Each structure stands twice: as structure tokens, then as C-alpha cells.
Fold:
Amino acid sequence: MFPRDALELIFRFEPLCQPGNWLGGIHGITIGYGYDLGTKTAHQFVRDWNGLLTATQLGRLLAVVGVCGTRAAEAAPLLKDIEIQAESAQVVWVLTELTQLERAVAAVFPGVEYFPDLARGALVSLVQSRGTRLDGARREEMREIRDEIEKCAKTHGIGYGTRCHIAAHLVRCMKGHFPLPRGVQARLRRDAEAELLERAAKVFMNTNPAPEELMPLQ
Structure:
């Protein structure tokens, strides 16, 4: 089960989008946590939100499914009276986005299955925020985390406590890519992700008094 603490971290930093606030560009009407109606089908929308919105709200938003760009911009002011509740948006996010993000993390960081749930949750938040790219100077720490996780996989999980600590340090180093004042939220999110990784390491250390290099992952 995905850790509640990791979910709370993600929802703390992800903006809750409302249909009356168009995001610009080629976006459609976006609701909840990044649920872009412009990229959905009518079937997907009704399946995902049925029971979480009123019948009237469903009908009005159904009319803008598949609508993007300037047409979405024109429609947004007419939808300002519809308010998406955080609890409903969280349900939809877990059902529609979480599995895809977990797969993305597994692809970017091979061997991550040897990390505990709390650490994997931190990396899901990181990948959701920063994406899956590993090339370029701004992705150096992402590549280093990948390398540390690969080392952990080669030992079948032995030493993952140390690897979690290293990953936490690298996540904090990423804060330098987000200059203040605009980068304040990104910096706070990196700190929160690092804290989850450190907590995962501490749990291991507290339950395994022997040197971790000698302790196989259970």
C-alpha cells in the first residue's frame, strides 16, 4: 500500500485545480490534481468522477471534455461556480495517476523495489514534480540517485539504509536548481522528500542493530 505520509506530501505541494482557472497554453479545463479534461474521453471522465460530482456538475464538465487551447480559455469563466473538493480530487488521483507514477519511478530507478515503501513514496513525489528525464546538468542528482539504487539492487537490498541517506542528501542538493524567490515551494518539497528518505533509513537502523552491510533486506 502506498504510504499515507507520501500521499500527504504530494497533496501538500500539488495545486488543486479548479475548472474556472484555465492553465493556459494547449491545456484543457484542468480539475483536481492535474486532471486535464482536454486529454480525456467522455467515458474516462464519467468513470473517474461519477459519484464525486453532482449530476449537474458532471454534465457541465462533460461538455468541455476534449476541449483545449483558446476554446478552453473561453469556457473557463462559465465554470467558476463549480468547486472541486480536495477529498474527491485525491480519490481520482490515486485511481488514475498513482500506478503510472510508480511504473515511471521503477523505469527511472531500476532496483527501487529494494527500497522500503516510504522511500519509494518520496521518489514518486520527486518524479511527479521533476519528471523522468535524466540528461543535462540539472539532472545530475537524479542520475546519482539512479546509480545508488542500482548498487543497492546488485546486493539484493543489503545496505539500503545507507542508500536512502545518500538519496536524501542528493534530493536536498537539487534545491540549488530552484533559485529564490520563485523556487521556494520546490525547495520545501525537496526537503520534505529528503525527510521521508531519512525516516525510511532510520526505521531500518532502529530495527536492525547489527551493521546494515551484514543485514539482508527482509
Summary: The beta strands are 30-31, 35-36. The two ends are 17 Å apart (CA to CA). The chain has ten helices and two strands. Residues 209-218 have pLDDT under 50 and may be disordered.
